[in-house]
Specification:
This is Cytochrome oxidase biogenesis cluster protein. It comes from Vibrio zhanjiangensis. This protein is an alpha/beta fold. It contains six helices and six strands. Strands 1-6-5-2-3-4 form a six-stranded mixed beta sheet. The longest helix is centred in the first third of the chain and has 28 residues.
């Protein structure tokens, strides 16, 4: 038979191991990069954080609206027009969240401005600093505070374009559901 002292020490060590061991194992997993976090967003987060104000761009929807923007390329071909059409369709598909989002065309000095005449979307003038973050043909989600949140790079085919717009909708719905701003 064990003495009470030995038995109580075993229980004490077991209790310490019970609480310390999981933390130690977690630390080992994190340090060795064995853990892959689950990501639910489909777009690419824009990091480091950037805002319209930091880039020297005027935000006409400051504090009021989320923006789903499309950076117009220098030459707007059929694929570009298809993306602009799907931008409008994505806005319609937002349903109850539609009033919180404004589809916009982001135009730079290089952009094909004839697109502005054929579409009813609002436009925002962007500069070269913005153009270095977001490339031509890309969609971008901007929050009401002017923070650039996510971007969606150029896709190759029309089928990929439809899937990308489904991804944009999924991400935007999640953001709007969780956000109290705008």
């Amino acid at each position: 038979m064990m003495s009470k002292v030995v038995r109580s020490r075993i229980i004490f060590v077991a209790l310490i191991a019970l609480f310390v061991l999981p933390a130690l194992i977690a630390k080992i997993f994190l340090v060795n990069n064995w853990y892959e976090s689950g990501v639910t967003n489909k777009g690419q987060l824009i990091e480091p954080r950037q805002s319209y104000q930091g880039l020297g761009i005027v935000n006409p929807y400051a504090g009021r609206q989320w923006q789903l923007g499309y950076l117009v390329p220098p030459q707007c071909n059929e694929f570009c027009h298809q993306q602009i059409y799907l931008l409008g369709q994505s806005h319609i598909a937002l349903g109850k969240y539609q009033a919180r989002v404004t589809p916009v065309l982001l135009v730079s000095d290089l952009s094909d401005r004839t697109v502005l005449e054929t579409n009813s979307f609002q436009s925002i003038e962007v500069n070269d600093a913005f153009h270095q973050l977001v490339s031509d043909f890309e969609l971008v989600i901007v929050d009401p505070l002017g923070q650039l949140v996510m971007r969606y790079p150029l896709v190759e085919s029309k089928d990929d374009l439809i899937n990308q717009n489904k991804d944009v909708l999924a991400d935007l719905r999640k953001l709007l559901k969780l956000s109290r701003v705008g």
